Every structure is written in C-alpha cells, then in structure tokens.
Amino acid sequence: MPPTDPDISSMQELEALAGLLEHRVRLAICVLLSKHEMMSFSRLKQVLDEKDGSIGTHLRKLEDAGYLTIEKTFRDRRPVTWYQLTDEGRRRLKDHVSNLMRLIERSG
C-alpha cells in the first residue's frame, strides 16, 4: 500500500503551536498563573522544583514575549517578585492548548 500524505490540517496545527509554550516549564508557568491571580518567584520555583537560574530564564522569556507582567514588592523588608499572566498570555495559552487538543483528537 502506498504511503499516504500527512493530514494537512494536523500539519497546520503543529505549525500553529506557540513555540514559546512547547517547553514544559514555560507551559507549566502559564498554566499555574492561569489558575492563580499572581504567584511569587519563590512559589513558582518551589512548585515547579526548578533552580533559580532555570526558572528565571523561563520567566524572562515569557515576560519579554508579553505573556507575563511583574510586580516587585517588599515583604518583611525582603524583595518579592510577583508574576501575573497578561491577557495576551491567556490568549496564547488557550490557543496553544486548543491546538494540542485538536491534534490529540485527530491522532486517535
């Protein structure tokens, strides 16, 4: 039997996936922030079990892309950095998850 052409719509959905959210840590950050109004750097680091440098790099990439906003405050005279998902970040996360769901449905 000759090979079949790939499903064109599936290929388009693969291309439509937000490259920034393909990394599990960045996706997890966005999912967590979609469920919580704000989270601190230390809480995200703790929940995701990541090192400072790693989580910082992922947060910076999301911030640079406009997915996150940050707010710096002080608690007991110590600096605390808070992260919040922007409207753009919510939209991109929703689109990414929708595209993943369509791909999964087509594969079954």
What keywords describe this structure?
elongated; 5 helices; alpha+beta; 17% strand; three-stranded antiparallel beta sheet; 108 residues
Please state roughly what percent of the residues sit in beta strands, choosing from under 5%, 5-15%, 15-25%, 25-35%, 35-45% or over 45%: 15-25%
CA-based gyration radius: 17 Å
Task: Enumerate the strands of the largest sheet in spatial order, edge to edge or round the barrel.
Answer: 1-3-2
Give the strand tally. 3
What is the overall shape?
Answer: elongated
Write the layout of secondary structure elements.
Layout: H1 8-16, H2 24-35, E1 39-40, H3 41-48, H4 52-64, E2 68-75, E3 78-85, H5 87-107
Helix pairs in contact: 1-5
Describe the fold and architecture.
By secondary structure, the chain is α+β, with helices and mostly antiparallel strands. The chain is built from five helices and three strands. The protein has helices spanning 8-16, 24-35, 41-48, 52-64, 87-107, and strands at residues 39-40, 68-75, 78-85. Strands 1-3-2 form a three-stranded antiparallel sheet. The chain is elongated and about 55 Å long. The model has no long low-confidence stretch (mean pLDDT 87).
